[in-house]
Amino acid sequence: MRIPLSKPHIPKQVFENINQVLNSGKLSGDGFFCHSTEDKLKKLLNVKHVLLTSSCTHALEIAMLLLDAKENDEVILPSFTFTSTANAVLVAGLKPVFCEIDPNTMNMDMNDVAKKITNRTKAVIPVHYAGISCDMEKLIKLCAPQNIKIVEDAAHGIGAKWKEKYLGTIGHMGTLSFHDTKNVICGEGGAFITNDDILADKAQIIREKGTNRAQFLRGQVDKYTWVAKGSSYILAEPLAAILSAEVDIMNELNEKRGKIHHYYIEQLKHLEEKNILKLPHFSKDCDSNYHLFHIILKNELSRNSLMGYLREKGIGATFHYIPLHSAPAGEKLGYKRNQLPITEEYSTRLLRLPLYPDLTEQECVSIVTEIQNWSQNQ
Ligand SMILES: Cc1ncc(COP(=O)(O)O)c(C=O)c1O
Q1: CB-based burial of residue 249 (10 Å sphere; 0-12 exposed, 13-18 middle, 19+ buried)?
Q2: Alpha-carbon distance 155 to 189, whole Å?
Q3: How far apart, in Å, are the Cα atoms of 71 and each of 113, 178, 375?
Q4: What are phi and psi of 120, to 5 degrees?
Q5: pLDDT exceeds cutoff 90 at 50
């Protein structure tokens, strides 16, 4: 593609940090860059505990394992999400219960969440789609009386806020992604975040293969041993070194994305007025990080037509997600097509446009011009 969907921005400092790690001879996790980047993120996001992980998928798995659930316990999540959100639920031996989305935001529909809560509901996973917050006020009101845990999947959300609080820090636990396609990257990586001391201690053990190694290194215990169920979820030092440099420029990266987002809105609003497409809108409580830019076309035919047209011109427009309840693994869990009609319809109408910090003005003009050219025949 002449203009890809996304492209990582790699600052010069990354090369210096990588050299420093290679010269240090310590490449495994829990080293200088792991600790210093966790500290930076704690300050930046105003949260008590940050544990870097090998992915957001793994951070979600840690969160699900921390629920200490029994067989048949349930977790409510949107069907319109990446497979990792549901896989984490399954890995921990829980049952995913898929809910509908609000087509205005593509975030979970809280009225449907309310309908799906049972006495087996252990947690709800709000996915903050595109870095735009779910309605956390309604969700907290639903969950608090029944002691249901909120685990935010803020894979898209680093630096975005809901009512002045950073996404991922509002619920009991939160997760971030630093995958290549995200706003702040290190290739593959993530973070588990929480304000709860007990959950953070237990998460350290799960992250360190079920051992108390972290406590041992801090001098809190005199033996390093196997204490609980766990896995190998820590971020390796070279990746933490990349992340360290990226975290330093998070605001700059998000601002650059914001400018492109605003440009798309300005240039495409006349097509919304003509009902050719719908633009993303969000409430004043949300402070977006402009993770991605999506438009909603009239129907699947129109979406596929524009996607094909842009791809022919070398512009990497794409769609996501295939609803999980109607995917083969969802059907194996007993879900059927037509059970979540809004999710099914909107996932066939959604189109993502290229958005990354180094997208040039000329490239933005070219994308918008091609969309306008396509719209002449609609
Ligand atoms: C909503 C959501 N959750 C979780 C993930 C998994 O993130 P990672 O690739 O860091 O495991 C993704 C990946 O894009 C995602 O979109």
Answers
A1: middle
A2: 10
A3: 21, 32, 52
A4: -100, -5
A5: yes
Q: Give 304: exposed, middle or buried? Use CB within 10 Å, 0-12, 13-18, 19+.
A: middle
- Longest CA–CA span in the chain (Å) reads 73
| Calpha distance 209→63 (Å, rounded) | 15
Q: How far is the CA of 56 from the centre of ligand 1 (A)?
A: 6
Number of H helices, E strands in the chain: 14, 15
Q: Identify the bridge partners of residue 77 per DSSP, sorted by sequence position.
A: 98
**Which of 284, 312, 298, 313 shows the shortest CA–CA distance to 351?**
298
Output the residue whose Cα is nearest ligand 1's atom 9: 179
Q: pLDDT digit string (tens) for 18-30?
A: 999 999 999 999 9
Q: Where does ligand 1 bind, in terms of residues with CB under 6 Å?
A: 55-57, 81-82, 84-85, 127, 153, 155, 177, 179, 190
Output the pLDDT for position 283: 84
Which amino acid, 15? F
Name the β-bridge partners of 34.
Answer: none
The backbone region for 44, taken as left when phi is positive above 0, alpha when psi lies in -120 to 50, beta otherwise, is alpha
How many Å lie between the centroid of ligand 1 and the Cα of residue 256?
22
* pLDDT tens sequence across 198-219: 999 999 999 999 999 988 988 8
Q: Which amino acid is at 66?
A: L
Domains in the chain, please, with CATH?
A: 13-99+107-250 (3.40.640.10), 251-375 (3.90.1150.10)
Give catalytic residue positions: 182
